[in-house]
């Protein structure tokens, strides 16, 4: 009884803190697509988490997420909570999703998921948009003595149910103690079409540049998730502007079907710890949507303009090659919802001129976007052109 009282008081404190710290993730529409924010890897009391499914929904709504996947471990099925008599024996591997979906109503899109938690060499995998976790688990359990065979059997059953399949945290130290590598089983699963995505960023294990490159090489969706087991308020410093790790989904509509279409088409990216990871074809238009060029001013001395960041993503720029004839700040920082003024002068014989050549009708500034990575240690390059 005392433990339940402490749990209730802790939850009450969490809700109170959340109610007074609105801190939503804001990212604008990109071309014809909505930029939806999702977390596709969370746990509840129905596996090894400590949060009720409805509370997971409230956390996601408060933080401004559009979609949340409930991905309890199908291998454990709330064993510790059942032993303590907190959960009924009638609960099955689909119960946590049903509770979350009912709690969400129309405020949040909830995806039915489950995590197959096998050890080396196959690792952990999420099945998203699944129909029945009981069948998913039953097929894997036919090969309990062989993790690789169990994983393959489980994923084949999930695929039969139309699930979207993600390889989780390939850089987790318990599965990759010395280096992040692709085992033969992973190559086989990719070859046989049993992976759709890789979790290149997990809040517990951080960014995996190897996984980022594998997604690019094998045309897999780029995903980033919290993998949270505890209340989010204990993991994220919201008061100082932190956000959970999210997958960005560039979807035509805010519907379950449109989210799945975008993921199948690989229109995803990751926003984590002030960084964005993805493909160039998604990140370049995302940058253009987040950073607006305003107040262009041509004078005898040069060209002035303002860069305005309309997103929650911090922007850091460094000068890139190709603009050696123009002088401007080589390092710029634009915090979320802030602006910075920039001036461009001409360069002749490696010296900055006090006046801009009147014959110049077009100038440009090339930057590396240090907070947008399109590959391992590869920042996005952009060019801002200004015409008289």
Model description:
This protein folds into two domains: 25-278, TIM Barrel; 289-387, Immunoglobulin-like. It contains ten helices and 20 strands. It is elongated and about 80 Å long. The protein is α+β, with helices and mostly antiparallel strands. The chain has a 15-stranded mixed beta sheet that branches. Strands 12, 13, 15, 17 and 18 form a five-stranded antiparallel beta sheet that branches. It has helices at residues 2-19, 53-62, 79-83, 95-104, 133-141, 147-160, 184-191, 209-218, 256-264, 280-290; strands spanning 34-42, 67-70, 109-117, 124-128, 164-167, 197-202, 206-207, 221-225, 246-251, 268-272, 275-277, 291-298, 303-309, 315-319, 326-327, 331-334, 339-348, 351-352, 362-373, 379-387.
> Which architecture of the largest domain per CATH?
Alpha-Beta Barrel
Residue ranges: pLDDT <50 for 5 or more in a row? Answer: 1-10, 12-21
Q: Which class best fits the helix and strand makeup?
A: alpha+beta
Number of helices: 10
Order of helices and strands: HEHEHHEEHHEHEEHEEHEEHEEEEEEEEE
The main β sheet shows up as:
15 strands, mixed
The best one-word shape is elongated
* Main CATH class of the largest domain: Alpha Beta
CATH topology grouping of the largest domain = TIM Barrel
Number of domains: 2
* Tally of strands: 20
CATH superfamily assignment of the largest domain? Answer: Metal-dependent hydrolases
Strand content: 25-35%
Distance linking N and C termini: 74 Å
Output mean pLDDT: 91
Q: Portion of residues in helices? A: 25-40%
Q: What Rg, in angstroms, do the CA atoms define?
A: 24 Å
């Amino acid at each position: 009884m005392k433990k339940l009282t402490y749990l209730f008081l802790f939850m009450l404190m969490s809700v109170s803190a959340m109610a007074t710290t609105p801190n939503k993730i804001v990212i604008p529409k990109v071309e014809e697509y909505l930029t939806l924010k999702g977390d596709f890897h969370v746990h509840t009391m129905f596996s090894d988490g400590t949060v009720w499914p409805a509370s997971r929904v409230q956390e996601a709504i408060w933080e401004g997420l559009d979609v949340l996947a409930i991905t309890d471990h199908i291998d454990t099925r709330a064993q510790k909570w059942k032993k303590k008599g907190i959960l009924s024996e009638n609960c099955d591997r689909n119960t946590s999703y049903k509770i979350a979906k009912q709690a969400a109503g129309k405020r949040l899109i909830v995806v039915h998921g489950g995590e197959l938690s096998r050890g080396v060499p196959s690792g952990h995998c999420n099945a998203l948009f699944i129909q029945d976790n009981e069948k998913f688990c039953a097929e894997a359990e036919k090969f309990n003595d062989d993790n690789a065979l169990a994983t393959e059997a489980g994923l084949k059953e999930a695929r039969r149910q139309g699930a979207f399949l993600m390889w989780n945290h390939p850089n987790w130290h318990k599965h990759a103690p010395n280096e992040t590598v692709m085992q033969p089983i992973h190559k086989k699963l990719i070859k046989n079409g049993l992976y759709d995505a890789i979790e290149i960023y997990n809040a517990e294990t951080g960014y995996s540049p190897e996984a980022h490159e594998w997604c690019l090489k094998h045309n897999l969706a780029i995903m980033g998730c919290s993998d949270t087991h505890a209340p989010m308020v204990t993991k994220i410093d919201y008061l100082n502007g932190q956000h959970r790790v999210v997958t960005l989904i560039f979807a035509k509509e805010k519907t379950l079907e449109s989210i799945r279409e975008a993921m199948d088409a690989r229109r995803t990216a990751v926003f984590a710890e002030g960084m964005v990871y993805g493909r160039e074809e998604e990140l370049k238009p995302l940058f253009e949507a987040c950073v607006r060029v305003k107040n262009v001013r041509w004078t005898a001395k040069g060209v002035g303009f303002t860069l305005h960041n309309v997103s929650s993503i911090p922007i850091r720029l460094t000068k890139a090659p190709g603009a050696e004839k123009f002088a401007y700040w080589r390092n710029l920082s634009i915090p979320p919802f802030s602006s910075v003024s920039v001036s461009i002068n001409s360069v002749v014989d490696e010296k900055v001129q006090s006046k801009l050549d009147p014959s110049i009708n077009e100038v440009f500034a090339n930057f590396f976007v240090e907070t947008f990575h399109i590959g391992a240690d590869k920042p996005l390059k952009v060019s801002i052109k200004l015409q008289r």
